[in-house]
Amino acid sequence: MATPLGWSGASVSHRETGIPWELELGAALLGPAGTARGGEIIKRFEQKGFCLVAMKFIHTSEDLLKDGLVKYMDSRPLLAMVWEGLNVVRTGRVMLGETNPADSKPGTTCGDFYIQVGRNIIRGSDSVESTKNVISLWLKPEELVEYKSCGRDWIYE
């Protein structure tokens, strides 16, 4: 049975699931181009073995955006996600690639899914601290759900 996470810091303790270490939470925000083509991106994180513990469509306010981004970012809903896993922040950054798609390697999300920096498809937290900021900005603590995925025993020792 799923239960709300009591998240207040950098990682989550899994007393119910019996995992002996702390798993990080990492946040990602799919932009307008991402919500148009996001299924493949979500699939990549799931295939890696990360667990999606929160997902919510949102609209951002103009005061949170830089002037040039308002029209683009308001063109579609954004998708806020929180992923859980061992080293999810660092690994997620590698999976996303460089912000400039010209510098991103093939196989990374940015290298495969977009061409111009101004049409960035996804943003990912670069630290546990930025994950906390993203969660507090877009989600309520009770919207993060703890559960043991069916593949966890095949992913973690």
TrEMBL record:
<dbReference type="InterPro" id="IPR036850">
    <property type="entry name" value="NDK-like_dom_sf"/>
</dbReference>
<dbReference type="GO" id="GO:0005524">
    <property type="term" value="F:ATP binding"/>
</dbReference>
<dbReference type="GO" id="GO:0001726">
    <property type="term" value="C:ruffle"/>
</dbReference>
<dbReference type="GO" id="GO:0030027">
    <property type="term" value="C:lamellipodium"/>
</dbReference>
<keyword id="KW-0966">Cell projection</keyword>
<comment type="similarity">
    <text>Belongs to the NDK family.</text>
</comment>
<keyword id="KW-0067">ATP-binding</keyword>
<dbReference type="Pfam" id="PF00334">
    <property type="entry name" value="NDK"/>
</dbReference>
<keyword id="KW-0460">Magnesium</keyword>
<dbReference type="InterPro" id="IPR034907">
    <property type="entry name" value="NDK-like_dom"/>
</dbReference>
<keyword id="KW-0479">Metal-binding</keyword>
<comment type="function">
    <text>Major role in the synthesis of nucleoside triphosphates other than ATP.</text>
</comment>
<keyword id="KW-0418">Kinase</keyword>
<keyword id="KW-0547">Nucleotide-binding</keyword>
<keyword id="KW-0131">Cell cycle</keyword>
<keyword id="KW-0539">Nucleus</keyword>
<dbReference type="GO" id="GO:0004550">
    <property type="term" value="F:nucleoside diphosphate kinase activity"/>
</dbReference>
<feature type="domain" description="Nucleoside diphosphate kinase-like">
    <location>
        <begin position="23"/>
        <end position="146"/>
    </location>
</feature>
<protein>
    <recommendedName>
        <fullName>Nucleoside diphosphate kinase B</fullName>
        <ecNumber>2.7.4.6</ecNumber>
    </recommendedName>
</protein>
<dbReference type="GO" id="GO:0046872">
    <property type="term" value="F:metal ion binding"/>
</dbReference>
<keyword id="KW-0808">Transferase</keyword>
